[in-house]
User: Which sequence fits this backbone?
């Protein structure tokens, strides 16, 4: 799919304001509503827009502790990785799971929990029990400096 300046503007605005109505979006990018809606639908159908969701306040929901967990695996096989990824996909506390390089770890997880007791239950009751997990290193987030960043769509050609 060729992405032009209108598509880039649409993508940028939708990342920040997913609930914007089509008329306002069209006005902001300088198109009439009909072609704007066609473009949005084309971006969705092409898989560039994968969904819309509400952003919740973790602290107000009682999830006051965010941890970054580096996980080392005992074997680097597709089956071991698939098994691990399936297991962490079932844990609601896991916000993000990244297969990484350049560290002693194989995965980085971002988790949200109520408190240290909840973290301990997640760690000892679930994560360390996943077959293949050979090491765990945790860091705790003191403060979020930048979050909900948008992809730099202006940088794509």
Assistant:
């Amino acid at each position: 799919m060729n992405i032009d300046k209108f598509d880039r503007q649409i993508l940028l605005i939708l990342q920040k304001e997913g609930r914007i109505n089509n008329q306002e979006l069209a006005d902001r990018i300088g198109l009439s509503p009909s072609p704007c809606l066609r473009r949005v639908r084309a971006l969705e159908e092409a898989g560039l827009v994968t969904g819309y969701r509400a952003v919740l306040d973790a602290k107000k929901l009682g999830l006051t502790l965010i941890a970054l967990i580096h996980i080392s695996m005992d074997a680097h096989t597709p089956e071991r990785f698939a098994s691990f990824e399936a297991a962490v996909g079932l844990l609601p506390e896991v916000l993000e799971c990244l297969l990484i390089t350049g560290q002693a770890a194989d995965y980085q997880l971002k988790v949200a929990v109520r408190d240290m007791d909840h973290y301990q239950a997640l760690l000892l009751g679930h994560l360390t029990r996943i077959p293949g997990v050979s090491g765990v290193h945790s860091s705790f987030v003191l403060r979020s400096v930048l979050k909900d960043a948008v992809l730099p769509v202006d940088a794509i050609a």
In short: The chain has two domains: 5-54, 59-140. Strands lie at 65-73, 94-99, 107-113, 133-140.
